Amino acid sequence: MPDQISFWQFSMETVVPRMLEGLGLTLQLTVLSGIFGISLGVFISLARISQSKFLSVPAAIYVTLFRGTPLLLQILFIYFALPPLLDALMASLNLPTSAIYRLDAYPAGVLALSMNAAAYLTEIFRAAIQSIDKGQMEAARALGMSYGRAMRRIILPQTFRRLIPPVVNELAALAKDTSLVSSIALSEMLYVTQRIGAKYLRPWEVYFWAALGYLMIVVTLTALATYLEKRLARQEA
User: Fold this and answer.
1) Which residues of the chain have pLDDT under 50?
2) 3-state secondary structure (DSSP) of residue 192
3) I need a surface site. Which of 117, 185, 208, 237 has the fewest CB within 10 A?
4) Domains of the chain by start residue, with CATH
């Protein structure tokens, strides 16, 4: 019987192999959502600080919406409510509806995590960009650079070092937030361990390994951030 098996045997034979499968999906969600979130966050942050209200107002609404509502609600909305809304929109435009608007759990999870992370990363990028002395932008424009070129060559490169700690903190939070996609039956690490715990009625072992898995991800990200900061410091020395 499972309850007569030792902790180590039960862990190595039952928990860890299944947990590693879930860990793989957790890492996929973290990496993909992190890449999409960073990319989207950069563009929204530039829109956020734009002098054009056509860009800054929608960007501010986006940030307020995704920072002001729970991530779990966003996941459920995108998975359950977004497809019917798209169908209704297509029908109102007299366009044919299609099964393409039925989101599977995996893309829905990636989309929700990416859009939520982008809202927080937008504010991180905005603060970093605005921390650069305005005189540098003025000097670049005086030399004939366009706004976009000055951003790419002068402002954004200087923000990189100060962005590392907050961006890594957000990615660590994102890795832990992936546990919420278990609500739409994605077999990430927490979902897998919950099912094992319910099946064998040995919760403390499975949650111990789940906690260790998330801790490993966060520690790895922290170590990477430390390495990058030291490398940049050596280059600037």
Assistant:
1) 1, 99
2) helix
3) 237
4) 9-232 (1.10.3720.10)
